[in-house]
Protein backbone atom coordinates (compact mmCIF):
# COMPACT_ATOMS: atom_id res chain seq x y z
CA UNK A 1 0.00 0.00 0.00
CA UNK A 2 2.87 2.29 0.85
CA UNK A 3 4.56 1.65 -2.51
CA UNK A 4 1.30 2.31 -4.38
CA UNK A 5 0.96 5.63 -2.59
CA UNK A 6 4.53 6.60 -3.47
CA UNK A 7 3.99 5.74 -7.14
CA UNK A 8 0.84 7.89 -7.26
CA UNK A 9 2.76 10.78 -5.75
CA UNK A 10 5.49 10.31 -8.34
CA UNK A 11 3.01 10.38 -11.20
CA UNK A 12 1.43 13.57 -9.88
CA UNK A 13 4.83 15.23 -9.59
CA UNK A 14 5.80 14.12 -13.09
CA UNK A 15 2.62 15.66 -14.46
CA UNK A 16 3.51 18.93 -12.79
CA UNK A 17 6.98 18.82 -14.39
CA UNK A 18 5.72 17.99 -17.89
CA UNK A 19 6.21 20.90 -20.29
CA UNK A 20 3.32 21.67 -22.65
CA UNK A 21 3.55 24.50 -25.14
CA UNK A 22 0.13 26.17 -25.00
CA UNK A 23 1.39 29.58 -26.10
CA UNK A 24 3.00 31.09 -29.19
CA UNK A 25 6.51 31.25 -27.77
CA UNK A 26 7.85 29.55 -30.89
CA UNK A 27 6.35 32.10 -33.30
CA UNK A 28 9.21 32.87 -35.72
CA UNK A 29 7.54 35.94 -37.23
CA UNK A 30 9.71 38.59 -35.64
CA UNK A 31 8.57 42.12 -34.83
CA UNK A 32 8.21 44.45 -37.79
CA UNK A 33 6.59 44.30 -41.20
CA UNK A 34 6.01 41.12 -43.19
CA UNK A 35 4.57 40.93 -46.68
CA UNK A 36 1.58 38.58 -46.69
CA UNK A 37 0.33 37.19 -50.02
CA UNK A 38 -3.16 36.54 -48.57
CA UNK A 39 -3.81 40.26 -48.27
CA UNK A 40 -1.06 41.14 -50.78
CA UNK A 41 0.41 43.87 -48.63
CA UNK A 42 2.53 44.42 -45.55
CA UNK A 43 1.23 43.44 -42.12
CA UNK A 44 2.76 44.63 -38.85
CA UNK A 45 3.63 42.19 -36.08
CA UNK A 46 4.48 43.20 -32.51
CA UNK A 47 5.24 40.47 -29.92
CA UNK A 48 2.95 37.95 -31.54
CA UNK A 49 0.12 40.35 -32.39
CA UNK A 50 -0.83 41.41 -35.91
CA UNK A 51 -1.53 45.06 -35.23
CA UNK A 52 -2.19 46.08 -38.82
CA UNK A 53 -3.10 44.41 -42.10
CA UNK A 54 -5.61 41.69 -41.15
CA UNK A 55 -8.60 43.78 -40.16
CA UNK A 56 -11.98 43.09 -41.81
CA UNK A 57 -15.60 43.96 -41.15
CA UNK A 58 -18.90 42.07 -40.97
CA UNK A 59 -22.19 43.98 -40.88
CA UNK A 60 -20.28 47.24 -40.44
CA UNK A 61 -18.48 45.84 -37.37
CA UNK A 62 -14.70 45.66 -37.50
CA UNK A 63 -12.15 43.08 -36.37
CA UNK A 64 -8.88 44.96 -36.04
CA UNK A 65 -5.98 43.15 -34.39
CA UNK A 66 -5.18 39.46 -33.91
CA UNK A 67 -2.93 37.81 -31.33
CA UNK A 68 -1.31 34.40 -31.50
CA UNK A 69 -2.79 32.47 -28.57
CA UNK A 70 -1.78 28.82 -29.01
CA UNK A 71 0.44 26.84 -31.37
CA UNK A 72 2.09 23.50 -32.03
CA UNK A 73 4.96 22.35 -34.25
CA UNK A 74 3.24 23.30 -37.51
CA UNK A 75 0.28 25.56 -36.69
CA UNK A 76 -0.36 29.00 -35.24
CA UNK A 77 -3.78 30.06 -33.95
CA UNK A 78 -4.52 33.80 -34.03
CA UNK A 79 -7.60 35.19 -32.25
CA UNK A 80 -9.12 38.63 -32.71
CA UNK A 81 -8.53 40.94 -29.75
CA UNK A 82 -12.11 42.20 -29.90
CA UNK A 83 -15.53 40.66 -30.47
CA UNK A 84 -18.47 41.71 -32.60
CA UNK A 85 -22.17 41.01 -32.14
CA UNK A 86 -23.71 38.63 -34.65
CA UNK A 87 -26.49 36.04 -34.39
CA UNK A 88 -29.14 36.53 -31.69
CA UNK A 89 -27.09 39.13 -29.88
CA UNK A 90 -24.16 36.76 -29.19
CA UNK A 91 -20.61 38.08 -29.32
CA UNK A 92 -18.05 36.35 -31.54
CA UNK A 93 -14.27 36.14 -31.87
CA UNK A 94 -12.55 35.59 -35.22
CA UNK A 95 -9.85 32.88 -35.45
CA UNK A 96 -7.20 32.19 -38.07
CA UNK A 97 -5.44 28.81 -37.99
CA UNK A 98 -2.26 28.97 -40.07
CA UNK A 99 -0.56 25.71 -40.99
CA UNK A 100 2.96 26.73 -41.96
CA UNK A 101 6.14 25.44 -43.58
CA UNK A 102 9.60 26.95 -43.31
CA UNK A 103 11.13 28.19 -46.58
CA UNK A 104 14.02 30.46 -45.60
CA UNK A 105 14.91 32.48 -42.53
CA UNK A 106 12.80 35.30 -43.97
CA UNK A 107 9.96 33.41 -45.64
CA UNK A 108 7.24 30.89 -44.79
CA UNK A 109 4.38 29.34 -46.72
CA UNK A 110 1.06 28.59 -45.05
CA UNK A 111 -2.53 27.41 -45.45
CA UNK A 112 -5.50 28.87 -43.59
CA UNK A 113 -7.07 25.79 -42.00
CA UNK A 114 -10.50 27.33 -41.48
CA UNK A 115 -13.91 27.07 -43.09
CA UNK A 116 -15.17 29.60 -45.61
CA UNK A 117 -17.26 31.92 -43.48
CA UNK A 118 -20.74 32.68 -44.85
CA UNK A 119 -20.62 36.26 -43.60
CA UNK A 120 -17.64 37.36 -45.71
CA UNK A 121 -16.76 34.43 -47.99
CA UNK A 122 -13.23 34.14 -46.56
CA UNK A 123 -11.47 31.41 -44.65
CA UNK A 124 -11.91 32.47 -41.02
CA UNK A 125 -13.49 30.79 -38.01
CA UNK A 126 -16.07 32.73 -35.98
CA UNK A 127 -16.62 31.41 -32.43
CA UNK A 128 -19.00 32.78 -29.81
CA UNK A 129 -17.33 33.89 -26.60
CA UNK A 130 -18.80 31.02 -24.54
CA UNK A 131 -16.88 28.49 -26.69
CA UNK A 132 -13.68 30.42 -27.34
CA UNK A 133 -11.62 29.25 -24.34
CA UNK A 134 -10.43 25.91 -25.70
CA UNK A 135 -6.65 25.44 -25.36
CA UNK A 136 -6.50 22.79 -28.08
CA UNK A 137 -5.03 23.80 -31.44
CA UNK A 138 -7.16 21.13 -33.09
CA UNK A 139 -10.35 22.87 -31.91
CA UNK A 140 -9.63 25.80 -34.24
CA UNK A 141 -7.90 23.97 -37.09
CA UNK A 142 -10.52 21.48 -38.29
CA UNK A 143 -12.55 22.92 -41.17
CA UNK A 144 -15.62 20.78 -41.85
CA UNK A 145 -18.18 22.62 -43.95
CA UNK A 146 -18.46 23.37 -47.66
CA UNK A 147 -15.07 22.68 -49.16
CA UNK A 148 -13.79 20.90 -46.05
CA UNK A 149 -10.31 22.39 -46.21
CA UNK A 150 -8.09 24.58 -48.35
CA UNK A 151 -7.28 23.23 -51.79
CA UNK A 152 -3.62 22.53 -52.50
CA UNK A 153 -3.39 25.73 -54.55
CA UNK A 154 -4.78 27.88 -51.71
CA UNK A 155 -1.43 28.52 -50.09
CA UNK A 156 0.07 31.84 -49.08
CA UNK A 157 3.49 33.15 -48.11
CA UNK A 158 5.04 35.49 -45.56
CA UNK A 159 8.18 37.36 -46.60
CA UNK A 160 10.04 39.69 -44.28
CA UNK A 161 9.75 43.18 -45.73
CA UNK A 162 12.61 44.21 -48.03
CA UNK A 163 14.23 40.75 -48.09
CA UNK A 164 12.93 39.84 -51.58
CA UNK A 165 16.47 39.74 -52.96
CA UNK A 166 17.39 36.81 -50.71
CA UNK A 167 14.27 34.69 -50.22
CA UNK A 168 14.46 33.23 -53.73
CA UNK A 169 17.84 31.59 -53.10
CA UNK A 170 17.52 27.84 -53.81
CA UNK A 171 13.77 28.22 -54.43
CA UNK A 172 13.87 26.89 -57.97
CA UNK A 173 11.16 27.10 -60.60
CA UNK A 174 9.30 23.93 -61.58
CA UNK A 175 10.38 22.36 -64.86
CA UNK A 176 7.85 24.11 -67.16
CA UNK A 177 9.34 27.51 -66.23
CA UNK A 178 13.00 26.50 -66.59
CA UNK A 179 13.66 28.07 -69.98
CA UNK A 180 13.80 31.14 -72.14
CA UNK A 181 10.48 31.87 -73.87
CA UNK A 182 8.62 34.20 -76.16
CA UNK A 183 5.20 35.15 -74.78
CA UNK A 184 1.85 36.78 -75.50
CA UNK A 185 -0.49 38.33 -72.91
CA UNK A 186 -4.29 38.49 -72.95
CA UNK A 187 -6.13 40.59 -70.35
CA UNK A 188 -9.60 39.53 -71.49
CA UNK A 189 -9.90 42.37 -73.96
CA UNK A 190 -6.58 42.74 -75.75
CA UNK A 191 -3.48 40.70 -76.63
CA UNK A 192 0.00 42.12 -76.12
CA UNK A 193 3.57 41.19 -77.00
CA UNK A 194 4.44 38.40 -79.41
CA UNK A 195 7.19 36.46 -81.07
CA UNK A 196 10.02 38.92 -80.27
CA UNK A 197 9.30 39.17 -76.52
CA UNK A 198 11.57 37.43 -74.03
CA UNK A 199 10.74 35.74 -70.70
CA UNK A 200 14.02 34.45 -69.24
CA UNK A 201 13.76 31.88 -66.42
CA UNK A 202 17.30 30.51 -66.76
CA UNK A 203 19.82 33.33 -66.48
CA UNK A 204 20.46 36.29 -64.23
CA UNK A 205 21.59 39.72 -65.44
CA UNK A 206 25.23 38.56 -65.57
CA UNK A 207 24.21 35.68 -67.86
CA UNK A 208 24.88 33.04 -65.18
CA UNK A 209 22.49 30.15 -64.63
CA UNK A 210 19.92 31.17 -61.98
CA UNK A 211 16.62 29.23 -62.26
CA UNK A 212 14.98 31.33 -59.48
CA UNK A 213 14.42 34.64 -61.29
CA UNK A 214 12.21 35.84 -64.14
CA UNK A 215 13.68 38.62 -66.26
CA UNK A 216 11.37 40.33 -68.76
CA UNK A 217 12.91 42.16 -71.71
CA UNK A 218 10.76 45.24 -72.03
CA UNK A 219 12.71 46.47 -75.07
CA UNK A 220 11.01 43.72 -77.04
CA UNK A 221 7.57 44.24 -75.41
CA UNK A 222 7.02 47.38 -73.35
CA UNK A 223 3.86 46.20 -71.57
CA UNK A 224 4.52 45.97 -67.83
CA UNK A 225 3.66 42.50 -66.62
CA UNK A 226 2.58 41.56 -63.06
CA UNK A 227 3.47 45.03 -61.78
CA UNK A 228 7.19 44.41 -62.29
CA UNK A 229 8.28 47.86 -63.48
CA UNK A 230 11.90 46.81 -63.38
CA UNK A 231 11.11 43.61 -65.28
CA UNK A 232 12.30 41.22 -62.57
CA UNK A 233 10.41 38.79 -60.30
CA UNK A 234 11.68 36.12 -57.87
CA UNK A 235 10.33 32.67 -57.10
CA UNK A 236 9.18 32.37 -53.46
CA UNK A 237 7.48 28.95 -53.44
CA UNK A 238 5.62 26.51 -55.66
CA UNK A 239 3.37 23.47 -55.31
CA UNK A 240 2.16 20.84 -57.76
CA UNK A 241 -1.37 19.58 -58.26
CA UNK A 242 -1.53 16.01 -59.58
CA UNK A 243 1.80 16.47 -61.34
CA UNK A 244 0.25 18.49 -64.15
CA UNK A 245 -0.49 22.01 -62.91
CA UNK A 246 2.07 24.03 -60.97
CA UNK A 247 1.21 26.93 -58.69
CA UNK A 248 4.06 29.40 -58.31
CA UNK A 249 4.11 32.54 -56.15
CA UNK A 250 6.43 35.27 -57.46
CA UNK A 251 7.52 38.38 -55.55
CA UNK A 252 8.11 41.70 -57.25
CA UNK A 253 11.81 42.54 -57.08
CA UNK A 254 10.87 46.22 -56.82
CA UNK A 255 9.01 45.62 -53.55
CA UNK A 256 5.98 47.57 -54.77
CA UNK A 257 2.35 46.68 -55.43
CA UNK A 258 1.44 44.14 -56.41
CA UNK A 259 3.97 42.49 -54.08
CA UNK A 260 2.98 38.94 -55.04
CA UNK A 261 1.53 37.21 -58.10
CA UNK A 262 0.44 33.58 -58.33
CA UNK A 263 0.98 31.68 -61.58
CA UNK A 264 -0.99 28.55 -62.52
CA UNK A 265 1.23 26.77 -65.07
CA UNK A 266 0.71 23.78 -67.34
CA UNK A 267 2.66 22.45 -70.31
CA UNK A 268 1.80 20.86 -73.62
CA UNK A 269 4.82 20.03 -75.75
CA UNK A 270 6.83 23.18 -76.28
CA UNK A 271 4.02 25.49 -75.12
CA UNK A 272 3.27 26.76 -71.59
CA UNK A 273 -0.10 28.07 -70.46
CA UNK A 274 -0.27 30.45 -67.53
CA UNK A 275 -2.96 32.37 -65.68
CA UNK A 276 -2.05 35.01 -63.12
CA UNK A 277 -3.72 36.12 -59.90
CA UNK A 278 -2.50 39.05 -57.80
CA UNK A 279 -1.52 37.91 -54.29
CA UNK A 280 -1.91 34.22 -53.49
CA UNK A 281 -3.48 31.61 -55.70
CA UNK A 282 -7.27 31.53 -56.11
CA UNK A 283 -9.05 28.40 -54.90
CA UNK A 284 -10.43 27.69 -58.40
CA UNK A 285 -7.50 28.97 -60.45
CA UNK A 286 -6.51 27.03 -63.56
CA UNK A 287 -3.80 27.63 -66.13
CA UNK A 288 -6.20 28.33 -69.01
CA UNK A 289 -8.78 30.70 -67.45
CA UNK A 290 -8.54 34.11 -65.86
CA UNK A 291 -9.55 34.34 -62.22
CA UNK A 292 -12.18 36.67 -60.84
CA UNK A 293 -9.57 39.34 -60.17
CA UNK A 294 -9.72 42.16 -62.70
CA UNK A 295 -5.93 42.20 -63.03
CA UNK A 296 -5.71 38.50 -63.89
CA UNK A 297 -4.23 37.77 -67.34
CA UNK A 298 -3.51 34.75 -69.53
CA UNK A 299 0.03 34.16 -70.83
CA UNK A 300 1.03 31.76 -73.57
CA UNK A 301 4.76 30.97 -73.91
CA UNK A 302 6.88 29.10 -76.43
CA UNK A 303 10.34 27.89 -75.43
CA UNK A 304 13.50 29.13 -77.19
CA UNK A 305 15.62 26.95 -74.93
CA UNK A 306 15.37 25.14 -71.57
CA UNK A 307 17.69 24.79 -68.60
CA UNK A 308 16.32 21.72 -66.85
CA UNK A 309 18.25 20.14 -64.01
CA UNK A 310 19.90 16.85 -64.89
CA UNK A 311 18.34 15.33 -61.76
CA UNK A 312 15.44 17.35 -60.42
CA UNK A 313 14.47 14.95 -57.64
CA UNK A 314 17.51 15.59 -55.46
CA UNK A 315 17.77 19.34 -56.02
CA UNK A 316 14.42 20.93 -56.59
CA UNK A 317 11.44 18.75 -55.82
CA UNK A 318 10.44 17.23 -52.50
CA UNK A 319 7.35 16.81 -50.42
CA UNK A 320 6.92 19.56 -47.84
CA UNK A 321 6.44 19.02 -44.13
CA UNK A 322 2.91 20.43 -44.22
CA UNK A 323 0.68 17.45 -43.21
CA UNK A 324 -2.32 18.46 -45.32
CA UNK A 325 -2.65 19.29 -48.09
CA UNK A 326 0.44 17.63 -49.59
CA UNK A 327 2.60 20.01 -51.59
CA UNK A 328 5.69 19.65 -53.76
CA UNK A 329 8.29 21.98 -55.15
CA UNK A 330 9.83 23.15 -51.88
CA UNK A 331 13.55 22.54 -51.71
CA UNK A 332 15.34 20.01 -49.54
CA UNK A 333 17.03 22.84 -47.68
CA UNK A 334 13.66 24.25 -46.66
CA UNK A 335 12.42 20.89 -45.42
CA UNK A 336 15.62 20.30 -43.44
CA UNK A 337 15.35 23.69 -41.79
CA UNK A 338 11.67 23.11 -40.99
CA UNK A 339 12.61 19.85 -39.31
CA UNK A 340 15.29 21.63 -37.28
CA UNK A 341 12.80 24.30 -36.18
CA UNK A 342 10.31 21.62 -35.20
CA UNK A 343 12.99 19.80 -33.19
CA UNK A 344 13.92 23.02 -31.44
CA UNK A 345 10.35 23.80 -30.45
CA UNK A 346 10.04 20.29 -28.99
CA UNK A 347 13.17 20.57 -26.84
CA UNK A 348 11.28 21.87 -23.81
CA UNK A 349 8.77 19.04 -23.99
CA UNK A 350 11.47 16.36 -24.36
CA UNK A 351 13.50 17.75 -21.43
CA UNK A 352 10.39 17.89 -19.26
CA UNK A 353 9.45 14.29 -20.02
CA UNK A 354 12.98 13.01 -19.36
CA UNK A 355 13.19 14.86 -16.03
CA UNK A 356 9.79 13.51 -15.06
CA UNK A 357 10.83 9.93 -15.81
CA UNK A 358 14.06 10.33 -13.84
CA UNK A 359 12.12 11.76 -10.90
CA UNK A 360 9.64 8.90 -11.01
CA UNK A 361 12.44 6.30 -11.08
CA UNK A 362 14.12 7.99 -8.10
CA UNK A 363 10.87 7.92 -6.12
CA UNK A 364 10.36 4.22 -6.86
CA UNK A 365 13.94 3.39 -5.77
CA UNK A 366 13.53 5.35 -2.53
CA UNK A 367 10.22 3.63 -1.85
CA UNK A 368 11.84 0.21 -2.39
CA UNK A 369 14.72 1.00 -0.03
CA UNK A 370 12.30 2.21 2.62
CA UNK A 371 10.36 -1.00 2.20
CA UNK A 372 13.52 -3.07 2.62
CA UNK A 373 14.59 -1.16 5.70
CA UNK A 374 11.26 -0.67 7.46
CA UNK A 375 8.81 -3.39 6.48
CA UNK A 376 11.19 -6.36 6.50
CA UNK A 377 12.60 -5.35 9.91
CA UNK A 378 9.11 -4.96 11.32
CA UNK A 379 8.04 -8.29 9.85
CA UNK A 380 10.97 -10.10 11.49
CA UNK A 381 10.16 -8.47 14.84
CA UNK A 382 6.53 -9.51 14.61
CA UNK A 383 7.50 -13.11 13.80
CA UNK A 384 9.86 -13.21 16.81
CA UNK A 385 7.16 -11.93 19.15
CA UNK A 386 4.72 -14.52 17.84
CA UNK A 387 7.07 -17.41 18.47
CA UNK A 388 7.83 -16.11 21.95
CA UNK A 389 4.17 -15.73 22.93
CA UNK A 390 2.92 -18.99 21.45
CA UNK A 391 5.81 -21.37 22.12
CA UNK A 392 5.56 -24.17 24.79
CA UNK A 393 6.85 -23.65 28.31
CA UNK A 394 9.96 -25.80 28.21
CA UNK A 395 11.42 -26.87 31.61
CA UNK A 396 14.96 -28.08 32.13
CA UNK A 397 14.88 -31.89 32.00
CA UNK A 398 15.92 -34.00 34.92
CA UNK A 399 19.35 -35.51 34.77
CA UNK A 400 19.25 -38.89 33.00
CA UNK A 401 20.62 -40.80 36.04
CA UNK A 402 18.18 -39.37 38.57
CA UNK A 403 16.60 -41.97 40.90
CA UNK A 404 13.32 -40.15 41.28
CA UNK A 405 11.31 -37.38 39.77
CA UNK A 406 10.16 -35.44 42.78
CA UNK A 407 12.50 -32.98 44.36
CA UNK A 408 13.77 -34.22 47.66
CA UNK A 409 13.72 -30.65 48.88
CA UNK A 410 9.95 -30.66 48.92
CA UNK A 411 9.83 -33.36 51.65
CA UNK A 412 8.79 -31.28 54.66
CA UNK A 413 7.38 -33.96 56.92
CA UNK A 414 8.81 -36.89 58.78
CA UNK A 415 8.58 -40.06 56.74
CA UNK A 416 6.37 -42.93 57.90
CA UNK A 417 6.41 -46.58 57.22
CA UNK A 418 3.75 -46.20 54.58
CA UNK A 419 6.02 -43.97 52.54
CA UNK A 420 7.96 -46.97 51.26
CA UNK A 421 5.13 -47.71 48.88
CA UNK A 422 4.93 -44.16 47.65
CA UNK A 423 8.63 -43.75 47.17
CA UNK A 424 8.80 -47.12 45.56
CA UNK A 425 6.18 -46.15 43.03
CA UNK A 426 8.10 -43.00 42.12
CA UNK A 427 11.41 -44.77 41.58
CA UNK A 428 12.34 -44.64 37.91
CA UNK A 429 14.17 -47.98 38.10
CA UNK A 430 11.27 -49.88 39.72
CA UNK A 431 13.25 -50.45 42.92
CA UNK A 432 11.96 -49.80 46.47
CA UNK A 433 14.19 -47.56 48.51
CA UNK A 434 14.81 -48.47 52.13
CA UNK A 435 13.47 -45.97 54.60
CA UNK A 436 16.91 -45.48 56.04
CA UNK A 437 18.24 -44.14 52.70
CA UNK A 438 15.32 -41.84 52.34
CA UNK A 439 15.82 -40.39 55.82
CA UNK A 440 19.55 -40.05 55.34
CA UNK A 441 19.17 -38.28 51.98
CA UNK A 442 16.53 -35.94 53.32
CA UNK A 443 18.73 -34.89 56.22
CA UNK A 444 21.88 -34.45 54.09
CA UNK A 445 22.87 -30.98 52.80
CA UNK A 446 21.60 -30.12 49.32
CA UNK A 447 25.09 -29.90 47.85
CA UNK A 448 25.91 -33.39 49.08
CA UNK A 449 22.74 -34.80 47.69
CA UNK A 450 23.43 -33.23 44.31
CA UNK A 451 26.95 -34.54 44.21
CA UNK A 452 25.92 -38.06 45.23
CA UNK A 453 22.97 -38.31 42.76
CA UNK A 454 24.99 -39.92 40.04
CA UNK A 455 26.21 -42.69 42.31
CA UNK A 456 22.91 -44.18 43.55
UniProtKB/TrEMBL annotation:
Q: InterPro entries, from UniProt?
A: DUF7042
Q: Where is the signal peptide?
A: 1-22
Tell me if Transmembrane helix is a UniProt keyword of this record.
yes
User: Source organism's superkingdom?
Assistant: Eukaryota
The UniProt entry, under Pfam families, shows: DUF7042
Residue ranges spanning the membrane: these are: 349-371
Ranges for the DUF7042 domain? 181-276
Keywords annotated in UniProt: Membrane, Signal, Transmembrane, Transmembrane helix
Provide the protein name.
DUF7042 domain-containing protein
